[in-house]
Design brief:
With 312 residues, the protein is mainly alpha-helical.
């Protein structure tokens, strides 16, 4: 089950230009171009409106109008749930439109948002073939999560200009987009990622991309990003605090200790506790480590080689 994806969704309604895709309106024998997606096995998402899905009629002639209406009905059911499971039947149903009609799935991205977009994304990834490259190029700027296709096919150099430009245009890029940019061999990439780390919605993903480039200015870039994020964007500050602490920001370590002391979420608490233990090499309880940090702010020594703190 995926958590928190709604922070990174870009909701854009677009008008499709079908004339640029030869044969887009041709009816396909459904079984001829459809992959074999198995029906659900194992645990299933209890939020799914099964009766709503059962009421949806498959297209008879698979015309453009029928396919678009079919997709719309599936997405309406998806919009009534809050979580995404790999076993969700909507993914299989959307994939039934087939390889030759994948453009209709691209067109629908952003029309509903939330879980519906996540189901569309999974169906697109299942149907996607190399021959769909130009469709991806057209719709990727509006749907950053589809950058995972670029990563999987190692197409970052072909999509270079589009990917780098996105760092300046969109603050809500997906981690896959940032990973793809991080693989590009171009001198413009490092400053663009450093800027995004300070201003974008996913500073941690930008950091991972920079770390993979062996950026010599990474310490200073992280410190600048920590100060730029500020308390106005609290959730970014929370998630970025372990990164900033790892690069010598004592304020970030103190912030992290406060998160462990007063957790707002059990999942996040475990993440923050693990980060605190990695930063302080003492075999103490999380409570003791928290107290150690909060009671000795002026006695913390940072080792930049080990990325650890000790108390003198």
């Amino acid at each position: 089950m995926h958590r928190g994806f709604s922070r990174h969704l870009v909701l854009v309604v677009r008008t499709a230009m079908l004339s640029s895709f030869p044969g887009a309106l041709a009816a396909d024998p459904p079984a001829a171009n459809r992959p074999g997606i198995k029906k659900e096995v194992g645990p299933s998402n209890l939020q799914v409106d099964r009766s709503g899905l059962d009421a949806i009629q498959r297209p008879q002639r698979w015309t453009a109008e029928e396919i678009q209406n079919y997709i719309k009905q599936v997405l309406e059911v998806s919009s009534r749930t809050h979580d995404v499971w790999e076993s969700d039947p909507q993914i299989r149903m959307l994939s039934e439109v087939g390889y030759n009609n994948i453009q209709y799935l691209f067109e629908a991205m952003g029309s509903t948002g939330g879980v519906a977009d996540a189901h569309l994304e999974k169906a697109i990834k299942h149907l996607f073939q190399d021959s769909h490259r130009e469709l991806l190029r057209k719709y990727l700027p509006f749907n950053p999560s589809l950058a995972s296709i670029v990563v999987a096919r190692d197409w970052q150099e072909d999509f270079r200009e589009l990917l780098i430009a996105g760092l300046y245009r969109d603050e809500s890029l997906s981690p896959d987009w940032l990973q793809a940019v991080g693989r590009i061999e171009n001198p413009r990439v490092t400053p663009a990622l450093e800027r995004y780390m300070a201003n974008g919605e996913s500073p941690n993903a930008a950091y991972e991309a920079l770390k993979g480039r062996n950026d010599p200015s990474l310490d200073e870039a992280v410190r600048k990003a920590w100060r730029a994020i500020g308390t106005a964007r609290r959730y970014r500050l929370d998630y970025f605090s372990p990164v900033a602490a790892r690069h010598g920001e004592v304020d970030a370590l103190t912030h992290l200790a406060h998160l462990v002391e007063k957790p707002s979420d059990q999942y996040d608490q475990a993440t923050y506790e693990r980060a605190l233990r990695e930063l302080i090499p003492y075999n103490d309880t999380a409570k003791d480590l928290t107290a150690l940090v909060l009671e000795n702010p002026g006695r913390l020594d940072f080792d930049p080689q080990k990325h650890e703190y000790t108390v003198h």
